[in-house]
Write a structure and sequence with these properties.
Rossmann fold, UDP N-Acetylglucosamine Acyltransferase, domain 1, eight-stranded mixed beta sheet, alpha/beta, globular, 2 domains
Amino acid sequence: MNAVLGIYGAQGHGRDVDFMIEELQALDPSIEVVYIDDNFSSSHSLNLRVMNFEMFLAERAAIKEVCIAIGRVDVRKRLSKICAEAGIAARSLISARAVVSRYAEIGKGALVGPHSIVSANVKIGDFFQANSLCNVAHDCRLGNYVTLGPGVLCNGNVHMGDNVYVGAGAIIKQGQNDRPRLIGRNAVIGMGAVVLADVPDGAVVAGNPAAAIRWNSYC
């Protein structure tokens, strides 16, 4: 075995990346892909091997990489630190059915699902996650550990801080070149929210138009 890729998270979003695993192995059948789940059991009904992190470290492979397929920002941050300290590199998985502009920049450890679009002059930090059918339009700036649920529409000139979580189907109104729409660090935008104004650091917003309902405590 030359290379093994661990998908950290055998449930939830980890199952949603199955399309991208198929695409990856079609291009390079020599890469073995496994699930990493520290609470795994033999009852998991999956087509791939499932193991905890210590078992993954013990795998005999010349190259070991990991993709963290867990939506919760605080958990993703913790696991990315653990992997880095163990010398395991972060790998990005971008679906062949996604469209990423050649003028866009995405950091390490990203997961970009099928039929998502990342447009020109977009800059995104590390450990980004975009589920299927997301649109990150021109001139957006997204920080580290940003998570977009399925069908999020992030229109042009939106600037997000680190650790932002955007629920499925949310729409964020575009900003302007001289005044981008600002989504603060650690903000959470609820499912289906329509964001027409800036969102402060740590705010949890929901509704149409979106309004603060509480303050985020876990990022």
